Amino acid sequence: MHLFDQVKSGVTMPPHLAGPIQLGARIALADRRFVLDDQVCSLAKSLVIDQADLLADCLDLVRLPAETFWLEWRDYDLDGQQSYEEPRVGLLVEADEGGRTGEMTLVWERPGGPPEVTPTCFAFDLDHALDPDPEWFGMTHQNQSIDLLCRHFRARRTQPSPAGSKGWTDHLVAQASWLAGPLMFAFSVLLLRSGEIAQREFSRGKLNKARVSRGRTALLDYTEMRISRPEIVRDMARTSLTGHGGVRLHHVRGHLVRRGSAIFWRRAHMRGEAALALPDERRFTRVRM
């Protein structure tokens, strides 16, 4: 079951965090619900981690796909590293009419238990780096380019750590959420290149008739996002071979490039001088058998 259906089945936000409306109801009322497959998620993560400078340069082009939407992906833990349990992570984005500022709610799956919601409110602004505020704490990252992205969103604690939880601290919230905001930005940039990302709509109408007749809750419709161009998948699978001097012949992974207001995919290619690619045979000892 997808995370948004798990939330809709009975997770209620505290009144001072979400108001009288359940989080599940807010997700049900969202304009769109997107589920990223592993390859799209990997591409978005690589855009954040490897091309954060490009992503920061493209924020002026970003328009969120809807005023309210749900974004869900797999393979994420508190350190932003790969997890063997592959929990689902969800982000409810509620933006203004212009799609440039808004707030986010972060949810993730807990094996053997109900989904957990961060006890914080996240705000973002695509146009300006958010100024320090004593009631808010900002996101930071040791990578300078990623840190520029993190400055466009911040968090505010809305409730104390609930009993039986992991014991949220501001530092732990920052750890859990530093990737969520930039990944949402990266997803919005990828949508600008609609030819590379295929959208498959899943309607649950017929399935829900049978579920409701058996007294079960109805499931929500959603859009699955997949990579449509096979060369992008091949480029992502290749390993980048970087030379120390940067001039020897080496492999460059496929990546996004911006030219003015256009963003396009540059395929994997070789770069450097072929004459410098071969190792100097004087560094080796020939052995004749």
Quick description:
This protein is an alpha+beta fold and 289 residues long. It has ten helices and 14 strands.
How would you characterize the overall build of this protein?
It is globular, with a radius of gyration of 22 Å. The longest helix is centred in the N-terminal third of the chain and has 13 residues. 28% of the residues are buried. Helices cover 28% and strands 24% of the residues.
Core attributes:
single chain, 289 residues, alpha+beta, 2 domains, ten-stranded mixed beta sheet, two-stranded antiparallel ribbon, 10 helices, globular, disordered C terminus
- How large is the radius of gyration? 22 Å
The parts where pLDDT drops under 50 for at least 5 residues are 15-20, 77-81, 239-246, 278-289
The span between the termini is 63 Å
As a percent range, the share of helical residues equals 25-40%
Count of individual domains: 2
Task: Give a short account of the largest sheet.
Answer: 10 strands, mixed
| Number of alpha- plus pi-helical segments | 10
Order of helices and strands: HHHEHHEEEEEEHEHHEHEHEEEE
Number of strands: 14
Structural class: alpha+beta
> Can you give the mean pLDDT?
75
What does the overall shape look like? globular
Strand composition percent: 15-25%
